[in-house]
Amino acid sequence: MAVRIMLWAVVSAWLLFGLSWGVLHGWIVPRITEFRPQLEAQASRALGVPVRIGNITGRSVGAIPSFELQDVTLLDAQGREAVRLPRIVAALSPASLWGLGFEQLVIEQPELDIRRAADGKIFVGGLEVSKDADTGHSDVADWVFSQAEFVVRGGTVRWTDELRQAPPLALRQVDGVLRNGRHRHRMRLDATPPPEWGERFSIRGIFRRPLLSAHAGDVASWSGQLYAELGRVDLSQVQHYASLDSADMALTQGRGALRAWADMGKGKITGALADVALRDVDARLGAKLAPLGFDFLAGRIGASRHANGFEASTEGLAFRTRQGLRWPGGNLALAHTGPARGKAESTTLKADRLDLAMLAQIAGRLPLDSDAQALLASLAPEGLVEKLDARWQGPLEAPASFTVKGSVADLGFAPAPAAPARAAAGPAQAAVGRPGLSGATADFALTQDGGQASVTIRQGALELPGIFEDPHLPLDELTAQAQWKLSGRKIDVQLRDVQFSNTDAKGQAQLRWQTDDKAGTSPDDRFPGVLDLQGSLSRGDGSRVHRYLPLVLDPAVRHYVRDAVVKGQVSEVKFKVKGPVGQLPFADPAEGDFQVSARVKNGHFTYVPKSLQPPGALPWPALTELEGELLFSRASLEVKDAAGKVAGLPGLQLVKGSARIADLMHQATVEVTTDIKGALSDALAFVAASPVAEMTGHALAKTTASGAADYRFKLKLPLHAIDKSSVEGSISLPGNDVRFVPDAPPLGRLRGVVSVTDKGFSVAGAQAQLLGGEVRIDGGTRPPAAADGKASVAFKAQGSFTAEGLRQATELGLVSRLAAHASGGAAYAASFLFRRETPEILFTSNLQGLALSLPAPLSKAAESALPLRLESGLLPGSLEAGQ
Fold first, then answer.
1. Between 772 and which of 232, 420, 683, 802 could a Cys-Cys bridge form, CB atoms 3.0 to 4.6 Å apart?
2. What predicted TM-score, i.e. pTM, was given to this entire model?
């Protein structure tokens, strides 16, 4: 039964179609002129305005007949001609005939004046085509959009916009096509603007209207897409007529090519996508923001808005600002959804090839809040974000949760200066600044609970304000695996597999830092936190050790290490830091552990730097070619088991030496201990060329000696009061020949110990050969005399001499010559005083044992006694006279 009904329905439809086709061709077309009044009346009802048709003819060629209407006019309310259409070609079909419309309407070379009044009403010619205030729709629009096909060829349109107060615009060679289905509309418009606008453009659209829409011209209910193609356009001209700006954003200038797609929803633009290739562009992204100027701007830009959020994107976007900043061309996609049904707002950001330096430099022209702009200005970031994928729930300034993944190359950001220390803080508690970075590449992933990153720095640097005196730390290479966790107020950071190198050192380390669990309730009490650092160096430059001494150490200590350690290579370096950073270097073992050990080779140690000495003072000879062990242990610094040489004195060898600062934190004092072997002549050169010469009043300036000796010295150098330095030492003489002054007889095979201090030196019980016999010597430096204020050297000698010894002592002059008449020997006592480099000698003997064959009364037998006293020295008053 159903099949029979369907069959009858199909047959009936074809019968009706055939009947309509026959009526159309056989009755209407031949008599079309007779139907002109009816057509005028029908058109007037459809358009809502009086319509007059000058002439009408019909042609029945093919399946679709056509009609030509000439001099079609539309009249205004006063009966005046408002619009004249010279020629219209209309085609009818059975389907259009059933709908009381046309299959196609072609309007040839129309000239239309379209005006938007100041109140927003639209007029074509003198006819208002805006929505009727009572019905809410336009009859003209309903009629136009109910025709199957509407075509305009070679038209001219003059547009006047009184609402925008823009200059009149004339479009020539206007060609348009409008194809209307039951619920679908397709259209295209091509037109040639004035030359200053640009070249011919094309606008196309595809739209749908709701199924239950009662009015075909109700554009406000349409949804679809609009496309515009402008091969060459000047946006400074377009912006007078089209809404290229809003209260917050504006595009006021630009020349070039433009393609744009706009998504429509219920008559409103919900999204837009544009391919642009423009030059000399001016844009403003906020009402209160400075404009952005571009030499060129190319790429794809898109944006869309939905009921509860928005999306924005760029693709292959590249530009160069008028300041010469070039954006490399990248992609960005931003999507935001507002809160709904108990769900927090959410945002997704995906991007690649983001130039951080350019973002920072144009931040003041971007719609960012003041905090974000201040942060960008402070960081001054640089680098290229190669990939970024970020998602967060809640507002950006305080997200409830987030996930960020990405990679960045050539990353850098500026440090922030160290904040002033709190009033109650000591040097070890001074605040550190925000670190800086340059030349880094990183792959990272982070959430609100923590994250991880793989970091590589090549030919870059770290900036560590508040940690080192020179905060700039160059790095040839650094690699590290970083991981951090956030739990409430607690922060835990770990760096694993850290490998680093620069001109100063090469090594590896492991690090863990966390906030202080024992801190109070204030957020600042968690910092500077607790550090656990361990590592080693395979090489290092000893002269650069001072550069890595933290600021918690006294400046005098850091500067002493800088000036004292002139040269050296370090190896087998091991370092360990464990404890609260604020307590470095952990003078109390209960606070933490700070250990650095290293082997030193080819070192050069100026244990008393010139910077610590008064101007013009003689330098202390440095120790060179040192090998030993360097050790930082908590608050102490020590050089142990050192061996080397004394600079400028090749005959002296440092057998064992050490240097120590027991307390780096409080009134640091350097203690230097040396055990030296070598030629006594070089030791005398040491005295002559060092502050010891002044200490001894230059009494040994003309002393000469042979043979080697052992020397042990200990220096104490208070860095805060170097003038209070002290020297203790000894010189062990195994049997040397010594002549104190050229005019004095030499001491042969001198054996004994010379004790040396910063006050001078002393000798007790030294043994030597003098004047052919053995002698015991005691003496040393005397305090300055009141006469000249200079120190002197005095010796006492007890021993025996022989006639032969006297004859050989030609320095004694007459005594030596008289000894030619003597034989045997005698005991004696003598004293020697060296002042102003002139010896004063007192010699006494009873001459018992010495025979003299001289004329009476000087002749004597050996067994008899003859008291003798010889004295030589400066004349009275010579000291006062300065002679």
1. 802
2. 0.72
- The predicted-structure confidence for 287-318, as pLDDT tens digits, reads as follows 667 778 889 989 998 888 877 888 888 898 88
Residue 251 near residue 239, CB atoms below 8 Å: yes
Judge whether 442 and 456 are in contact, CB under 8 Å.
Answer: yes
Q: Which of helix, strand or coil describes residue 17?
A: helix
Where are the strands (E) in 48-128, listed by range? 51-59, 66-75, 81-91, 104-108, 111-116, 122-124, 127-128
Residue with tokens 């508040």: 466
Give the other-Cβ count within 10 Å of 670's Cβ.
24
* Count, residues in the chain: 883
Name the residue with tokens 């030597």. Answer: 768
End-to-end CA distance of the chain: 156
Instruction: Identify whether the C-beta of residue 411 lies closer than 8 Å to the C-beta of residue 440.
Output: yes
282 CB burial (10 A radius; 0-12, 13-18, 19+): middle
Token pair in block for residue 391: 């998602």
Identify the burial level of 325 via C-beta atoms within 10 angstroms of its C-beta, where 0-12 means exposed, 13-18 middle and 19 or more buried. middle
pLDDT at residue 429 is higher than 60: no
Using alpha carbons only, give the angle 414, 415, 420 rounded to the nearest 5 degrees.
Answer: 150
Query: What's the rounded Cα separation, in Å, for the pair 323 and 295?
Result: 9
Owner of token pair 């935001």: 336
What whole-number distance in Å separates Cα of residue 517 and Cα of residue 529? 8
Residue 528: pLDDT band (50, 70, 90) is: confident
Which residues, listed in sequence order, are joined to residue 825 by a DSSP beta bridge? 802
Our CA dihedral for 27, 33, 37, 43, rounded to 10 degrees, sits at 80
Dig out the tokens for 169 from the structure: 């615009």
Beta pairing class for 726-739 and 472-487: unpaired
- CA dist., res. 485 & res. 489, Å (int): 11
Phi, psi of 586, deg, nearest 5: 65, 65
Q: Is the dihedral of CA 448, 363, 237, 124 positive or negative?
A: positive
Nearest to 750 by CA among 762, 764, 738, 765: 738
What are the pLDDT digits (tens) for 563-591? 988 999 999 999 999 988 888 888 888 88
**3 state SS of 377:** helix
Task: Please give the Cα distance from 160 to 468 (Å, whole number).
Answer: 71
How are beta strands 149-161 and 104-108 bridged, if at all? parallel
Whether 299 contacts 276, CB under 8 Å: yes
Query: What are the DSSP E strand ranges found in 182-267?
Result: 184-192, 201-208, 223-234, 250-265
- Is-contact 680 709, C-beta < 8 A? yes
Q: Are 568 and 601 in contact (CB under 8 A)?
A: yes
Query: How far lies 378's CA from each of 275, 357, 372, 410, in Å?
Result: 35, 12, 10, 18
Query: What does the pLDDT look like over 256-291, one tens digit per residue?
Result: 998 999 888 887 888 888 899 999 988 776 666 777
Number of H helices and E strands in the chain, helices first, is: 13, 44
Contact in structure between 749 and 768 (CB atoms under 8 Å):
yes
List, as one string, the DSSP characters of 684-752. Answer: HHHHHTSTHHHHTTTTTTT-EE-SEEEEEEEEEEETT-GGG-EEEEEEEEEEEEEESSTTSPPEEEEEE
User: What pLDDT was estimated at residue 33?
Assistant: 64
The torsion region of residue 23 among left (phi > 0), alpha (psi -120 to 50) and beta comes to alpha
Contact predicate 628/640, CB 8 Å:
yes
Q: What residues are paired with 339 via a beta bridge?
A: none
In contact, 111 and 156? CB cutoff 8 Å: yes
Rg (CA), the chain: 54
Dihedral over Cα of 216, 221, 227, 228: its sign: positive
SS3 of residue 237 by DSSP: helix
Phi, psi dihedral angles at 441 (to 5 degrees): -125, 135
pLDDT at 427 over 70: no
